[in-house]
Amino acid sequence: MFARYAAVVKNLRGVVVFNLDEEGVWDSIAWLVQRFKYRNLGIPPKIVNQYYGILKSYLNGNPFIGLVYPVKELENLTKIFIKLYHIPDKLAEGLVLASVYISPLLLVGDTYRAGVEDNAIEVVRICKDKKMDVKQWKLHLRIADYTILDFYNKSVEESMKILEYVAKGNIDSKKVKDILDKRLDRVKKDTKRYWRIKCSEGKPFLYYIDPLKNIVEGIINGTIKPNELSLDHAAGLAIIPVVYIPPKQQV
User: Fold this and answer.
1) For residue 125, what are the β-bridge partners?
2) What residues pair up with 108 in beta bridges, in sequence order?
3) C-alpha distances out from residue 17 to 97, 169, 175, Å
4) Interior angle at CA 104, CA 184 and CA 219, nearest 5
């Protein structure tokens, strides 16, 4: 499994989550296929399994690739996300794998949108007078890729610190708060990358999810037990940019 992961991670440009039973979602998937003819997009295993018959001609890098968990512990992290976020398994899997594959999550359609909105720590909204043509979409999808890439090393280091505290049975509230506050500050600064489209009100373009925040809250309130966590989980606890692609996207 790890060999397959290593072969994919360098060339991946996003992890895609969707529900093909939602009206208009296939239009948006077809739009993504056109936009990413020469780039790869990953699909979590549960979605591949559900829609394999429909997706098979687009798999193997055309442009989609079925993703795998490089280590078993990260599959267990998906189960923890389901408990923490109260979200469907397909969205939880997408969030974990987006972090693991160092790629933005591309959320197509509205089926899973509430689960993202309810847990986002920050949102980038598109000004009402800004038109997102193909050029703008390409640019801002590339910026979202830079967002997770630039966050990744520091995010994982911080997650490992917290997990080490947990393993020792010592969550120092001041140290933990300091780490989470710094992560939020970095997110707020990162929103400035999207200055070309960004407004305080408007349709959402990108959500930021910080799973480390939810891990800490879950430990404090008893939703998860320390022995459920592993240092290997740090790879799935980066700050995740989630790009919202509406149904019937046909730019």
Assistant:
1) 199, 204
2) 245
3) 11, 35, 34
4) 50
Rounded distance, CA 37 to CA 19, Å? 22
Indicate the pTM of the whole model: 0.95
Tokens 């208009």: give the residue.
Answer: 24
Q: What is the DSSP string of the chain?
A: -HHHHHHHHTTEEEEEE--TTSTTHHHHHHHHHHHTTTSEEEE-HHHHHHHHHHHGGGTTTSSEEE---SSHHHHHHHHHHHHHHT--HHHHHHHHHHHHTT--EEEESSTTHHHHHTTEEEEEEE-TT----HHHHHHHHHHHHHHHHHHHHHHHHHHHHHHHHHHTT---HHHHHHHHHHHHHHHHHHGGGGTTTEESSSEEEEEEE-HHHHHHHHHHHTSS-GGG--GGGGGG-S-EEEEEE-TT---
Closest CA to 229 of 113, 79, 109, 98: 79
Mean pLDDT of 45-54: 96
Name the residue type at position 20. Answer: L
pLDDT in tens, 9-36: 778 899 999 999 999 999 999 999 888 8
Residue with tokens 């200055």: 195
Distance CA 149, CA 239 (A): 10
- Are 191 and 125 in contact, with CB atoms under 8 Å apart? no
What confidence tens digit (pLDDT) does each residue in 174-210 have? 889 999 999 999 999 999 999 999 999 999 999 999 9
Rg (CA), the chain: 18
What one-letter code names the amino acid at 1?
Answer: M
